[in-house]
Amino acid sequence: MDCGTVIPLKKSGFCFERETEERIGLDLVELAQEGMAGSDVSQMSAFFTLLLRQLEGDAALAYLCAQAIEFVPEPGRPVFSRPLLSTPDIRVSIIGLHPLRPVPMHDHPGQWGLQQVITGRMRVRRFDCLGEQSSNETLAILSLLDDSELGPGDSSMVTPARANIHELAAQGIAVVLMSIQTQPRVVRPQSWFIPENSMLDSPGGLFCNRIRKRFCG
Predict the structure, then answer these.
(1) Are 29 and 4 in contact (CB under 8 A)?
(2) What are residue 28's phi and psi, to 5 degrees?
(3) Which residue segments constitute the domains of the chain, with CATH numbers given?
(4) Burial class for 187, CB neighbours closer than 10 Å (0-12, 13-18, 19+)
(5) pLDDT (tens digit per residue) in 104-157
(6) Which listed site, 16, 35, 178, 200, has its alpha carbon 20 to 30 Å from 66?
(7) CA–CA separation, 37 vs 10, rounded Å?
(8) b/e for 69-93, b at 16 or more Cβ within 10 A?
């Protein structure tokens, strides 16, 4: 396994200090993999807490968070996203969401993932897909699992088998997240899910058009 590399922020002119790069090497990648081995959100939250502690005071991280807060969506770039750490197994990023540009329902095929709020508040709705479906099907029926509002330190998780579809929206002001995702060995196309009805609590579930992933709206 690659022990993990920090990607220089060439566009911004910032990069992580060498001692920071060493601190978030193999030990943190292994901790992330241990957390991803189960569906316990507390394990992954512990990983984020440790990672943020390791990065405390780092100029590049502070710069990224400031950039994420100031981010304004534009065509082809609906969210702010910058990688902190990338290996063949794990990807850790800083994500910024603008309050006027929610992220529609989408899936993460074969991935474990967790998002932890650094600043701001975020509404997260998580869904399961009812029945076995292939990525080629254009209609999906979703069941709402939970609808939560998260603040700093709160986390939300997706897993390959459950809650693999979610929808994210900043509440009032921009929200900054730290996101970690596994890199699946076999990747099938991701999808957006566009609702045909608004009856989330209907017995038949939420009927959606399924579209190969490409940002909508």
Answers:
(1) yes
(2) -75, -35
(3) 18-212 (2.60.120.10)
(4) exposed
(5) 999 998 888 889 899 999 999 999 988 766 656 788 889 999 999 999 988 898
(6) 35
(7) 33
(8) bebeeeeeebbbebebbbbebbbbb
**In the predicted model, is pLDDT for residue 193 greater than 90?**
yes
CA distance 195 to 217: 14
Q: What single letter denotes the amino acid at residue 196?
A: E
User: pTM of the predicted model, to two decimals?
Assistant: 0.76
Query: What is the SS3 string spanning the chain?
Result: CCCCECCCECCCCECCCHHHHHHCCHHHHHHHHHHHCCCCHHHHHHHHHHHHHHHCCCHHHHHHHHHHHHCCCECCECCEEEEEEECCCEEEEEEEECCCCCEEEEECCCCCEEEEEEECCEEEEEEEECCCCCCCCCEEEEEEEEEEEECCCCEEEECCCCCCEEEEEECCCCEEEEEEEECCCCCCCCEEEEECCCCCCCCCCEEEEEEECCCCC
